[in-house]
Amino acid sequence: MKIVLLLGFIFLNNVVCTDVNTVYICDSRTGKRYHYTADCKGLNNCQHKVLKTTLEIAKSRGKTLCGFED
Question: Is 40 left (phi over 0), alpha (psi -120 to 50) or beta?
Fold first, then answer.
């Protein structure tokens, strides 16, 4: 029984946790924000490709968190 509970906990922990290191940015010269979800309202105006990247890279490019996600 303990093994079943342990496996259940491990499974739920992996399903519920999201990767906070993955962010989305608009691939334009004027884009200033990063987004935690690809369907954020802040990306609706993106006329270019939406890129999936890491938080570290987005910050190194001078991006800040989108106001809709704050």
Answer: beta
